[in-house]
Amino acid sequence: MRQKKNKWLFVVIPFVMVIILGMSFITTEIENVVEDGLNEKSVQVIETSIREPQTEAPQEFESSELASNGEFIKPLQSTGVFEGIGLPEEDDYMNAIHKMTHQKVHAFAKWGVIQMTDETIDEMLRVLDEANYEHETFYRETLEAWMNGDFSNAVDVHNQLWEAQGGTIGKAKRLLTPEEEAEFIKNNLK
């Protein structure tokens, strides 16, 4: 009788272990699909706003400044990041850098985008020279690397800012390829 019990345990224990490992693998794969999307083409830019959607440009905007994503963009010395509001609060500054990373990183969902140009980076550095932010060193190191053409930190920068802002969907996984970045710019910034 004892041998029958031992044989039964040799069958049941491996079977249970296979089921547990299989469920763990399936759960991990489902999380990856949810986070990464179904394929590379599923990357989406989702614009959110707490104000009512506008059908007309506000007085200070030209109607030609309506981006393809429906967001009004006002140039500031050809960038428009913070014109007319004085020095931004640190949360707004952090959010601007976060939106800049969207041009460079692959993530399932991206909320907002600010085109990363030399002028935009320069404007962000000028604001940083005048402001007194808690994370100034992080921002300066990030922007100076970008100004020198080094975007290798974009995934890490995105994810640090994403976490600081309470992100739950849209963690960056990798840098976009040059072709993907060109497509992103074409679809979201031109």
Features:
mainly alpha, 6 helices, 190 residues, two-stranded parallel ribbon
Model description:
This protein is mostly helical and about 190 residues long. The chain is built from six helices and four strands. The strands form two sheets. Strands 1-3 form a two-stranded parallel ribbon. The model is unreliable at about 30-80 (pLDDT under 50).
Short description:
The chain is built from 6 helices and 4 strands; from the N terminus they run αβαββαααβα. It is mainly alpha-helical.
Q: How would you summarize the topology of this molecule?
A:
Elements: H1 2-36, E1 44-45, H2 90-101, E2 105-106, E3 109-110, H3 118-130, H4 136-147, H5 154-164, E4 174-175, H6 178-188
Parallel strand pairs: 1-3
Antiparallel strand pairs: 2-4
Helix pairs in contact: 2-5, 3-4
Helix content: 40-55%
Task: Write down the overall mean pLDDT.
Answer: 73
Series of secondary-structure elements, N-terminal to C-terminal: HEHEEHHHEH
What is the molecular shape?
Answer: elongated
Portion of residues in beta strands equals under 5%
**Structural class by helix and strand composition:** mainly alpha
Total helical segments: 6
Q: Biggest β-sheet, characterized?
A: 2 strands, parallel
The poorly predicted ranges are 32-79
- CA gyration radius, whole angstroms: 23 Å
Trace the largest sheet across and list its strands.
Answer: 1-3
